[in-house]
Amino acid sequence: MPHSSDGNPAPESGSGDGRRVDRRVQRTREGLHHALLDLILEKRYDKITVQDIIDRANVGRSTFYAHFLDKEDLLEQGLRQIGQQLHQSMAERSDDGPEGGGEADSILNSHVFFVHAYANRDLYRAMISGGGGDFLLDTGRKHFTAGLEAHLSERVATGGKQEIPTAVVARYLAGAMMSILTWWLAEDMPYPPETINAMYESLARPSLEALR
Amino acid sequence: MPHSSDGNPAPESGSGDGRRVDRRVQRTREGLHHALLDLILEKRYDKITVQDIIDRANVGRSTFYAHFLDKEDLLEQGLRQIGQQLHQSMAERSDDGPEGGGEADSILNSHVFFVHAYANRDLYRAMISGGGGDFLLDTGRKHFTAGLEAHLSERVATGGKQEIPTAVVARYLAGAMMSILTWWLAEDMPYPPETINAMYESLARPSLEALR
Amino acid sequence: MPHSSDGNPAPESGSGDGRRVDRRVQRTREGLHHALLDLILEKRYDKITVQDIIDRANVGRSTFYAHFLDKEDLLEQGLRQIGQQLHQSMAERSDDGPEGGGEADSILNSHVFFVHAYANRDLYRAMISGGGGDFLLDTGRKHFTAGLEAHLSERVATGGKQEIPTAVVARYLAGAMMSILTWWLAEDMPYPPETINAMYESLARPSLEALR
Amino acid sequence: MPHSSDGNPAPESGSGDGRRVDRRVQRTREGLHHALLDLILEKRYDKITVQDIIDRANVGRSTFYAHFLDKEDLLEQGLRQIGQQLHQSMAERSDDGPEGGGEADSILNSHVFFVHAYANRDLYRAMISGGGGDFLLDTGRKHFTAGLEAHLSERVATGGKQEIPTAVVARYLAGAMMSILTWWLAEDMPYPPETINAMYESLARPSLEALR
DNA sequence: TCCTAAGCGAGACGGTACGTCTTGTCTTCCA
DNA sequence: TGGAAGACAAGACGTACCGTCTCGCTTAGGA
User: Cβ within 7 Å of strand F: which of D 33-92?
Assistant: First the structure.
């Protein structure tokens, strides 16, 4: 069962380098990912058919289904790599330490999201208005929430008059951010990412400070 | 053109009795609304087909399309009445004046949402996990945002060192609320609506105050 | 379940005239039968796809499957009417009584088959060389065998030194006839139907007489 | 081009030992033949896929196509050896001269067929009811017809009031025999091969005699 | 005895047809 | 005569096979 939806499709047998997935397979998968992302920029995601994708990728129908469960699976896996970019950016940012604008920033790490959305604005916009945006937003929200919860629970451990569950706070801030992000994209990004992020932070910071 | 998506499909010609929608028509429409809501509680919204609905409502296929554009349209119109309940609750609440917990509450009016969601929790949960939740959430967000923007712009008009656009603030607060609301529903409402609302307000109030 | 493979798809509720199958349905079915027969004359039966048929008949895919189980079912039902022609011809011929060439002829009734095959030679040839000929031949064989068995068993009832089972004799004569028929068609009918039938009868008659 | 459908895939270069097909090749081919015959006894021939065959034979897909054009080709070549058995039996029988029951027998040589079918009854039955029977029957018919035509044309050459073409007579007798043979197999061979052959001969002999 | 080409397994791949499903339109019948 | 019933065209879906192909491995036969 060469199927997907399992984080590690390629076992990668440790030492030497094993038999890494068969180069053909890799090319096929990438072709399909590419074709889908291409198409998303051209037409609404939910109007894209499997046939469209395989025509674009020059791939047989059965090959598609040998690699992915369906259109959603393809998208999801495709977004994974974007998610990982995001994750990495966040990690790097965290490593830098609280160099600049106060503690809230390093907790929120929201800057990374706005910058990332800006860099991939075509994709983001297409996804949000095309019907398949939930994956993307959910992925983003998940990352953001996770990062936040980690920071917050650590803070709680060190004290603080905290009365609101960490999970709620994280959801609150994540939802607020995604909401602004969505609006910003829908409005064709009337501000640079730094500005919109600054707005977000000035709205979020008071809430965080009140928790202390 | 007997179609829908226009707020008032039945003109209702003023005085006497006009041509009041033909009682049969009314019954058919209600049957369809009812059938859909029924089905939503049984299976994921996006797995419900038009065939399911008309079977349940004992109605012919063409009849369905004579009244509604599609499944979405039926849902949307069905939710309209719920939206109106909500709207009315908000209006009443506003009229009461700032009786209780300070100004923020009356601006936010979030209590109404949590209470409403609690009252209709089966429907809300089904919708959110069933793929059709966007309508509901969007409807909610729209109402909430609208109310907020009205209040905020009024405030701005009267001064305040406002630097963040009203629209952004409204989106911020609305997104945060819907996010908490969603979490609360998904977690099977571990708190009463008053408590979760209180959490929301204590997170939101500092942001509002900082704007002043 | 409006499906086929049941002798009487149209219930035909006796008296008045009921609701006879919906004229549309009749037209659709006929269109499909026609399309298939058309196509059979153009290309090998087993190279014809369902898509070919419905394109030719201007019919939707699902409509096809609403009426027939598959390509075979369509063919089978289409041949039924041909089978009925044949059956009727045989009945008429039998009614005439033994007007001419002796008893054997009236028992064999083979003339009818050769004439029928001649009249429908395009179809027969296409079917035989196209891979779907078994239906046709089996149908023919069945009819022929049935007629024969009736005659023979009657004869047995009236005595005769019969030692070979009726079924065997019938199969023997039927197989011989179909074999000649097939050859005759494959050779592009080098003789008129009367001649080939005469050959068949002069080969078959001695066997029948020997049974007496 | 290592392909098949050419009677002699292994040229067998005369003297010494040449390049004797590579023992591996031989083993592979036999494995495939064996696998197919095995499978035929288990399920309908036309439901057997190439995948089934190569799984059973533990052979790679490409290997299959290196040796045979397709499933049909494999079957055909597999049946060749059976055909050769048959051919040889016929030859031997002929050589014996008219030892027993008169001339007709030696002309017809039908006994060989019934005996052969009886000996391979499992295969015959599976093939006939499984959709791939045509090969087998055609092969049989071809052999039978050929033998018959040889005898008959010889007879014609020596005179006789023959008016029916040899080819027709041969087809007639061959078809009749295959028809009885099929029936006999389908009925689970209710008689020993000698009996059914006797029936066939007593039906066929009068026709032959009438030709003289 | 080594070396090299062939045979081979494994299975990815493009392609094509299948039978199912759902949608929104269109025709026909009935009250 | 207008609403209900449901047949229909359209076309996407996920599955099943086919015949071709590209890989490495193994393995025999000629050097």
Answer: 49-51, 61-62, 65, 70-71
